[in-house]
Model the fold of this input.
Amino acid sequence: MLESRFYGKDPVTPPTCPFCGLLIEAPKELSTRRPGELPVGSCSCGAVYACDETGHNLGAAMIEALVFGCNMDWDLAWGLLPEEDYLQEIVEHYDLTSHLLIPGGCYEGRRIGGALYFVRLHPDVREVTAEGVRRRLENARPASDPHNRSARRANPKSFSKKQVEDLVKTQKINPILMAAREDNRILRYLQRLLYSGDDQFRKRAAEALGRACGVVGQRDPGTVSRLLQGLFYAITDTAAFSWGAFEAIGEIIGNRPDLFGGYAPQLYQFLGDPTRKGQALQALGRIAQASPEILRKHTFHFFAFLEDRDPEVRGYAAWLMGNLSAHEAEKDLHKLLHEAHELEVFEHGNLEKKTVGQIAAEARHKITRHTEAKA
Done:
């Protein structure tokens, strides 16, 4: 029996569900699995779980389990509250290769530090999502052995804080992206540059951070998720220093909307703040450039900003409408064509001054091209 096997002094046992105590199957990789996603599974009691092979990415595992339990509906997942809508438990010392719990932390010459993150949704939510979860697992495949995957390079290139700053200043992004493949510290160095008082440099840093997060997110989405959460917290906390936070959020989500698009709706809370709605619209516009479908269903919520008192708000709202290819807004954009108020727009690594009228004209042109392409 597996229950009677020992490795040293510690028992080696098969994993069970922390909610019902039943044995669970090994996590599987979904057929729709994207790079960086974690293996997932489901217990017969309705709980779902995600496997963090290292034990260092529990934030990513929590997100993976919650979104999977919601049948990959990000909007639903981010609307749920812990304790009220779902319960969470972590099972530690899990080894994906053997599908066993190894309390001693060492098995067959390997160090074991994995974990299973369990989420059990409220019955009302499970009633809606359970069938979709079941179908996804039916089409899933066994998780590949992490010890047979290609190894990382032995000596990854790393940079000092000063070197990262110089690379951003000179817009040499590729070395940063190469370093991000192996070293998460590059994200901290880039985040520090968001505090610059130089608007153009700060936006270049945000752009570099977004692209680096796209690389890191492919192998370690939990780290990027925690970074995003910290940026949102910096905006909401009046005592925190939030320069560059909106730009960074827009760039991070815009570079990997497939992984982090679920965070986009959190920007809506700032649209009612007169001091922040322009920045929020700018971040949403950046996301719409990459993945307009994430925001398209909320298009009508943005119409009022085309008539806002603040010309910056009107300009960024027009830019957002163009990126959404919102043909419904053409008449409203037409009203802005002769507006001469100027604002700075970040394009191709540089800040450029444009009038609200110019931005509206460009937005209408994008909408026309999109409409013709669909015809």
